[in-house]
Amino acid sequence: MKNPMHSFDDIQTMIECLIDELHMLVEDGAYEEAQLVNLEIKELEEMLSSI
Question: What is the domain partition of the chain in residue ranges?
Fold first, then answer.
């Protein structure tokens, strides 16, 4: 997923989708999976800061 060809908007959209997924996982009690999604969100946020 660390493709430098992603635009700012693409990355922002991915983050928004992952946040929705994160909320569903937490509601379902899937905390381990939620932690992985949270890490992915943090990686994408770091990518945004480098654009």
Answer: 8-49
